[in-house]
Design goal:
Largest sheet: 10 strands, mixed
Number of helices: 18
Bound molecules: 6-O-phosphono-beta-D-fructofuranose
Distance between the termini: 34 Å
């Protein structure tokens, strides 16, 4: 039968997120090819060795949609695909609703609010177009809540992930009060005076949606406290600051801090496979015996790539001793290209990179190598090679690059780290920390990294690697589950 009954399901543990652990593409002959996703959540869930666990995610493109509609109830058969024991249910949400919810509300509105990205004299504007997007976001969250309610066994634990799904916890609680519901935020959280930019009903729906969970988890205490401050200021909720609880409308939500770490075992093994060695040899050939400054990011507004390049240009302009002695390797791979702001930003990154090479390159020295395609083994090779890693986001929930580089570095790497990254809270002692808006201070930190004595660099890198792997993804995931 392809009909779903109205009864409860059988899954004792469920995860819900917009982007799931797998995605599909269509090969030339029309068949569907599956690719496993990376990231902490995918590794984390592998700690659950329960074939009844279910991961509910959205079909993100046409190939995903085909896969979802071919499988009964969207439940995919992933046997033999190295994606853990759990089942995956991909929701086939109609493309217009999905685009409005994902691009319009999640990525253009909530992401911008939490990363403080608006140029406020002209944006945001909450008009009739936004209202259509907001309706779609509500429908998209309701589709997730329905699927979770149908799949969950009585008393099951459900872990809802991130700002795409902020309404889902309350919707799910209304449908299934028996469930234990957790919510986890992978982004920073905006301070109340910025969160108030949202229309009042939208701000309230987001906060009360999350407060539908028994526990709301954050990557750092900074973001947990900002969420609590929004609950007090906008809802009048009662916050117990020492117990980190929020009491609102007769219910208590516990706030948890779970600082996702790097997957040390996986990274060390993966970084020494032949495909990485090959790419390392190619990078070494391009760089020669010069020093290297490495950055690896999605081309994402909050990653602050443009100011990073301006800092490198300032370094070369003010310290000519580095000419022909350093190469900046910048990997900035495409992200959210449906949004005009991201396309414009990508163009600005490419223009500035071109200008830097035009200003300083010589027949034998290319000061900047920019790659705009995603290649994980090449990123690992750059991590191994780096003398300095530049991680300078305007604001970042955690930033795993800052945690991954020290783990795989071959000979120690100085870390230039923004104080606005969540990772700062754990790594500040051994990093060279910067205000991400201060291009001159960033250039000075790059210089300090390039001139750091080898022994100091090695010692700092060891301590950074230990801090970075303190809570590996599997433990991070189990901690949240156990706390529920
Ligand atoms: O960590 C924040 C996050 O938005 C995740 O939810 C998401 O999967 C990732 O960044 C990449 O963004 P996107 O899924 O929009 O490519």
């Amino acid at each position: 039968t392809t009909e779903r009954s109205n009864q409860t399901g059988t899954a004792p543990v469920l995860v819900a997120s917009n982007r799931g652990p797998v995605s599909f593409s269509t090969s030339d002959d029309g068949t569907l090819t599956l690719r496993r996703g990376g990231g902490g959540l995918v590794s984390g869930l592998s700690a659950i060795d329960d074939p009844n666990a279910v991961w509910v995610c959205a079909a993100l493109g046409d190939a995903d949609r085909r896969a979802a509609t071919q499988a009964p109830y969207g439940r995919l058969d992933l046997a033999g695909h190295d994606v853990g024991g759990q089942a995956v249910r991909m929701l086939d949400i109609d493309p217009e609703t999905f685009a409005r919810a994902y691009n319009g509300v999640a990525n253009s509105t909530l992401w911008f609010v939490h990363h403080l990205l608006y140029a406020t004299p002209t944006a945001p504007v909450f008009d009739a177009g936004f209202r259509a997007e907001w309706s779609a976001y509500r429908a998209y969250n309701a589709a997730f809540a329905d699927a979770l309610a149908a799949e969950a066994a009585p008393g099951a634990a459900v872990l809802v992930q991130d700002y795409h799904l902020s309404l889902t916890p309350a919707l799910l609680r209304a449908a299934r009060p028996d469930l234990r519901i957790g919510y986890f935020s992978h982004t920073p959280w905006a301070p109340p005076e910025y969160f108030r930019l949202l229309p009042d009903d939208v701000a309230e729906a987001v906060l009360t949606g999350i407060l539908g969970a028994d526990r709301a988890g954050f990557l750092t205490e900074r973001w947990a406290r900002a969420f609590a401050a929004c609950c007090t200021d906008l809802l009048g909720a009662t916050v117990d600051h020492s117990a980190l609880t929020v009491r609102y409308a007769g219910r208590t939500t516990h706030l948890g801090v779970h600082a996702l770490g790097a997957d040390g075992d996986f990274l060390r093994e993966r970084a020494h496979r032949p495909d990485v060695d090959e790419r390392l040899a190619a990078l070494r050939a391009a760089v020669g015996d010069r020093r290297t400054i490495v950055r690896v990011d999605r081309t994402e507004l909050s990653k602050n790539i443009v100011r990073g390049l301006q800092a490198y240009r300032h370094l070369l302009r003010t310290r000519p001793e580095w000419h022909d002695r350093v190469v900046h390797i910048a990997f900035a791979y495409p992200s959210r290209t449906d949004l005009a702001e991201y396309r414009d930003y990508t163009a600005e990154v490419e223009r500035l990179a071109h200008d830097i090479n035009a200003e300083f390159a010589t027949p034998t020295w290319r000061p900047l190598i920019l790659h705009v395609d995603d290649d994980f083994p090449r990123s690992l090779a750059a991590y191994r090679l780096a003398d300095v890693a530049l991680v300078n986001p305007i604001r970042d929930g955690m930033n795993l690059v800052a945690k991954e580089v020290p783990v795989v570095s071959d000979h120690g790497c100085a870390l230039v780290l923004s104080r606005e990254a969540g990772a700062y809270d754990e790594l500040a002692d051994d990093a060279l920390t910067v205000n991400p808006y201060d291009v001159i201070a960033t250039a000075d930190a790059l210089h300090a990294g390039l001139t750091m004595p080898a022994e100091e660099r090695t010692e700092r890198t060891k301590r950074l690697a230990a801090a970075a792997t303190a809570l590996p993804p599997q433990q991070w995931f189990l901690d949240q589950l156990n706390a529920l």
